[in-house]
Amino acid sequence: MLPEKQSKAYTDxxxxxxxxxxxDSKTTLLIQLAAAMSVGCYP
Length: 43
What we know:
67% of the residues lie in helices and 0% in strands. By secondary structure, the chain is mainly α.
């Protein structure tokens, strides 16, 4: 999987997009999918 440093950065980013009050749920999901795909995790 990812090295520890990259995994922490990804997890922090994921949590920041998941726990927000600005973005709607559809936009949040699209950001999460894009972030996962950018590090090589394809659905």
